[in-house]
Records
---
Amino acid sequence: MAEHTPLLELRGVHASYGRIEVLHGVDLSLPAGKVLALLGPNGAGKSTTLKVLGGLVPATHGCIHLAGRHINGTEPHKLARIGIAMIPEGRGIFPRLTVQENLRMASYAGVDTATIVERAFEQFPRLGERRGQLAGTMSGGEQQMLALARGLATDPEVLVLDELSMGLAPLIVSELYELVARVAATGVSVLVVEQFARTVLGVADLAAIMAGGRVTAVGKPSEIEAELTSAYLGAAT
Amino acid sequence: MHLAQIIQFTILGLATAGIYAVAASGLVVTYQTSGIFNFAHGAMGMIIAYVYWDLRVRRHVPGPLALVIALFVVAPLLGALVERLLMRHLAGSSVITRIVITIGLLVGLLGVAQVLWSGNITPVPKLPRFFGDNVLRFSGVSLPWHQVVVLVCAVLVAIGLRIILKKSRLGVAMRAVVDDRDLAGLNGCNPARTSMASWMLGSFLAGLAGILIAPSLGNLDQATLTLLVINAFAAAMVGRLRSLPLTFLGAVILGLASSYMDLIGSHMTTIPTWYSDVRGSLPTILLFGVLIFIPQDRVRVSAAVERLGRIPRPSVAKALTASAVVLVVVVIVSSLLTGANLRALGLAVALAIVMLSYVPLTGYAGQISLAQLTFAGLGAYIAVRVVGPNGSLLGLVVAFVAAAIIGALVALPALRLRGLYLALATMAFALVVENVVFAGDAPFSSDSRPFGRPTFLAGQHAYLLFMTAIFVAFGLGVFALRRSAFGRRLQAMKDSPAASATIGMNLVATKLAVFALSAGIAGVGGYLLGCWKGQAGQSDFSLINGALPGLAVLLLTVVGGIAVISGAFVGAMFLVAMPRLGEMVPSLNNIMMILPGFVGVTLARNPDGAVMQVVDRFRERFGGSATEAVGDAPSDDGATVEVLGPEAFVIAGAAPSRAQLDALGDGLGVTGEQCGAVA
Amino acid sequence: MPLLDVSDVTVHFGGNIALDSVALSVEAGSVTGLIGPNGAGKTTTFNVITGLQPVTSGSVRLAGEDMSRLSPYKRARAGIARTFQRLESFGSMTVRENVLVAAELRRGRNGPRPGPFADALLERLSLTDVAGVRADGLPTGRARLVEIARALATRPKLLLLDEPASGLSDGESESLAELLTELAEGGLAILIVEHDVPLVMRVCHQIFVLAFGAILTSGSAAEIQADTRVQEAYLGTIEGGG
């Protein structure tokens, strides 16, 4: 284990909305350069875990470390600047800004606009064709491309993806995850929450299952996959 | 009319439009970048115009330097302060709190201006026009240079805003923060700093508008100057508080319409009163019109979770005891008072009735109205016209019925409106009534319409007791309402319109009923107020001008506690006592002028009002049982609103529901390894 | 004739199609499930049935009567009640008041008196102990039961439940299942959206699967569980990872 010092680590993290606690001690670690899929039923606390990572929800107990650095309580914009690129659930874009303006916003994380735009359009030529279009008027798949482009072009240490597939056709979801796999191959660590478990297990190095505000199992995708059908659809098969 | 004349009035109209455009674009910028509609926009413009006057005329600072200090130092500083001290703390607060905070700021800034620049100040505040009275003449048209400056400024603002918002990264960030504040943070942009920048920009635009418009006033007057900038609300509304080009279009429509009415008026031998009244109220009429025709959201599942206020529900015994206490206290205190102090106490009791009208309307049903004092004035005016100057108890009935009918009529077009739009529509209604109805009646407009009392209530003490009894009766009525089926319906409508509709509640009928009821209560309060004073009129029932402006009435009701019956009484006492204290103890005068506004501003931290806070403190100290409430609403994570995913669209906000969040117990069936393996 | 008949409903949001020719029906006295992955259009379907979401085309009929042009409160009076996925309880009111206000709105000439009726519902849903508690102070599981009690207080013919089991403990989930079965036996038509698929499989007579805004398939629990398309809709395709 020693050679795999985790890049990102959560230890005993608790979080609450108002007085209702939803995370009851989450332990999770993401080794550098790996893809970790976080699975589990609705309401297990997956999105909240990601929000804690993005600084949007404070952790009431526990510690969060990024590359050995303690990052509890750091504001979202500072986390973004030290290398956590989070694409939130829904669409991680500004609908009333143009494609180009969306990419310009990404420059706050530290990479200059010209570089971001160049990288994004190279990776997603379709975005280049629509640079002047309002992001909210693009198709769902294109919006997710834009969100991903923002995350990728800013040289993040960790890419955090929440339900990339929401409302998208299977073909587009596959395309997006192929891309995630390519990015991971370049050494970026990825933490991904996804309802289409089989799809994401195809690209993940590790999988963790959450239930009841805790991580209940961690393992290789092959170990986890067998349990999926019964977990999601009941014990018929 | 000659062509040259038409050209001249067109250009003058465009110059007026320019001022509206500058003022309105400032409003739109702050609303768009912070989600807060700044009712104090006009007051900020007024303060900056006064600063400019103070520097230039009073302290003889050279014109250009004074201009730079006022617009580029004082204005941004004011904007930054407002953002840092007030607006930053409003995230997740209710629409009512947001509205009341900026109204508190408005009232507070008016107080500050009064302290700094009122009374026998020398020289008389008056701003010169730019380039004095020099006139530009061409082909039969003569145009004051000042208007040319105004036009140039408007064009520069239009170009400047476009460059800032479209071309600069800060401008893109400002728009991004409105689209999705959290996401802007995730991008690495600091939303708090961006908001501050936009408040600085908004304050600059308010100041510019104030300075441009001030010379047209002759002598400066704080309330009038504030109102002039408020006229720009209509232009901002044409752009639906969103589009700057449409806002400029709205300003042009407004400017030209006013100017052409002047042109037509200049050809009339005698101008009828209604004509000049309509001309004067054109911006507010337009505002009301735009609000009514603007496309509205339908009932939908609530977007952001706001903290729900507490609505106390005292026992019958407590309510009766409180009623008795109010009666006894008023009897005892009034027996000790004479003259001006007694008059002030009576005024407070009458106002308490007007304020009480907010409890069912806003406290229970969550509907916002800035027109309650106007309903009071209408009740008083119509009742006195019907029953005549000789007192009659019938007047109370007339006041109730007339105000209730008008309340329902106003509510009818406003029914589709919610929150901010409803507040603006009732404000426009209040201003139109004030400028057309109240100003249109000769004795009423000069505050000298006689109101009589029935002979058996002619004495001051008898009448005061009578008013108190009516307050107590209405208070008990509202108390009973809270416990009735109708009261439950009001509260349900406030908590969740969508759920109310799906259990079979007719929202339209319910809103209509509560508007009528509360306008009726206000009408009775207004008539009593008139009878108490003996002579009353416009300035007793005015929104911003006058001794007891309507905005302050709302403000202090909320301060007392909008859902608390005794809060209305306490608020009214404050409202009347503060200026009275100032009169009696001159050293306190300044504080008393500023206090009402800034007391209102503290609401961000205490939305349930003063009475509830005192009760809580009392209970903390002396043990007593906690309030019935189990606790505050768990605050959800302000849902991200703009989500284009199909389902999330109607639910507005894809943030995980409270349900999803702590939901579990799902048959995932994985029991396996413990998380220790991870560490 | 089914009690609820949704036929050919299409809903557009701007350029996106949220629902695409959705047709489903619910019989009186039965529990029908509506399942599908997140974002499939389940809640939108509920909003269409209750009138909160206007349709681009298609119709909603209750007992043969066209509801399509009626406002939400008229549909409620015609017998449609619902709960919400994102809780919409009347948070500043007590639990009892939440139920009472609904009972009062449906007070009929010869119906039960609202007070005792509300109390009986609270009893039935085991909420009596929290009757005097403010609704927004309840944990989610119980708050969901309050919404169910409130919906039942309108004495509906059709009950729409949006994720009623989310946030419930295993025990609570168990009693919810029993309650649904009992209610259906009493003649109520129930349409339920739920992520707890085992629960759905157990209580539903008929299940519709919604994916990408369209009905993918429908059938009995056994048929649905055996359908590979349903598995794909839920879990994604394996080759997707590439």
Note: The first helix of chain C runs from residue 42 to 50.
---
Amino acid sequence: MGVVEVREAVLSRRVTAREVAKAALGRLAAHADRLGLLTQPLTDRALEQAAEVDSRLASQSGDEARSRLPLAGVPIVVKDNLCTSFGRTTCASRMLEGYESPYSATAVARLLERGAVVLGKANLDEFAMGSSGEHSALGPTRNPWDPSRVPGGSSSGSAAAVAARCAAAALGSDTGGSIRQPAGHCGVVGLKPTYGRVSRYGLVAFASSLDQVGPLARSVEDAAAILDAISGVDPHDATSADRPHTDTLASIGTPVEGLTLGVPRQARGPGNHPQTARVFEQAVETFRGLGARVVDVDLPTIEHAIAAYYIVATAEASSNLARFDGVRYGRRAALGPDDGLDDLYSRSRSEGFGPEVRRRIMLGTHVLSSGYYQAYYATALKARRLVQRDFDRCFAAGCHAVLMPSSPGPAFRLGEKTSDPLAMYLEDVYTVGVNLAGLPGVSVPAGFARVDGVELPVGVQLIARAFDEGTLLRAARMFELANPAGRRAPP
Amino acid sequence: MSGLSDDDLRRIARLSRLALGDDQVGPCRERLSAVLGYVERLHGLDLSGVEPLVHVGDQTNRLAADEAGQTLGNDVLMRMAPERLEPFVKVPKVIDEGAGA
């Protein structure tokens, strides 16, 4: 069952939250190891949370429960770079192997307050750095559609758990595509909200000016329900926007009148897999069939977005990850009697961080270092401005949303891109610009590519104006309803 | 600009506080150079007169109400430290005894 279905069943007392949790935990236990979904199951804790929801329900009238527990009994998994005051928070890194956070991330706390039940912490690329789910110290996550392939990343476990029907929804984080790209590869809906829409408090920081927490779910409607629960200003995060909670679910079924969609010529790049290109054109036709006006737009800087992104993101990461030094928390290397503080830092960090994280810290350190700052970092920030202007022009020309593929091709095989970081980075060609510009974007299942005799999901991405998740999700819902085949579960 | 030398790599590793074995220098240099070579394309953009975009959010300070609130206690934070000598977090010696004050 999805988010809205579970909520309705539990609120109408057709089923208890505990029964839902038991069933979900059973399914999760059957698939978690096979697919590498979790860094940690939270079975006992989930049953306790569910029992608590049931007891809160018992003491409330129907109307009261509906407003206070809009996610009553909804079983979710939470990406393990979001702090939880229960269980461990590891970022899939040896650096934080046994780390127990003293507090929960605001997004997690808001879900719990509203009645959701956390089944476990979802696997990810270490510190959310990766596009395949392979850079986890605990081993890779696998794609439920074809376990020899990656689920995408970095919210790999979140996407795969929702696709495998082990959780009704999941929380992920998206710095350059880490919600939308795995959502596309796994055939689920993935929403990156506007920068500032959801509090980042308790999200272990990767690139603070780009990171955003968001939902992965089976339907646009379910993603809207989760967004409405987690959005809104938070005194603990000064970058959270001073705006009220969204209420996107209430109007999700209302089609966007006179919907105008911009299709950038860059979305039809020569790097697209032929089957991704085919599904994308079908999606454009589906929107036309819904009466949308489809217009050509131009995002001339988007082909520079990856370059700008990997400078900005790694620069911020090198600064953010400086806190892991073996002193106050996290891994501490064993030292000899003559070793000093510098040895403690460098050995703890080298033992704790995996190769991709080390690579990004070094890249970020280099682009910020004396003599290189202007050439790399300052240049990337100017390119970032141009990326934002490109999108602004589309919206100023009357587009409600911009339509692009979620990634250039369907899920690739495990190991195919691990030895070539640049090839891996290019996976994010259609997603990073959205983070640089701070806009909301959603990946929606659009169809299937048949590759080597296997069907693999293909997603398309809609992008809207900042803080216009309402229009974004309504347009996505129109597409979803017109394209029910996209919502199939894996075999 | 993108071609890194082994010495560049050692300098970057030192600044990053990462230990880099001799056998890791070569492969690491190659991979970083490839990425730096790719990002060179930014220099093909006309960026004259373009203001850098550091952050998309509202960049004004927001003042919190001047009220005491609950924060995490010292005991909670100290429990996370891998080595401690209460009430301190323990680190290796940083001042050389022979060096004087």
Note: Residues 374-396 of chain A form the longest helix (23 residues).
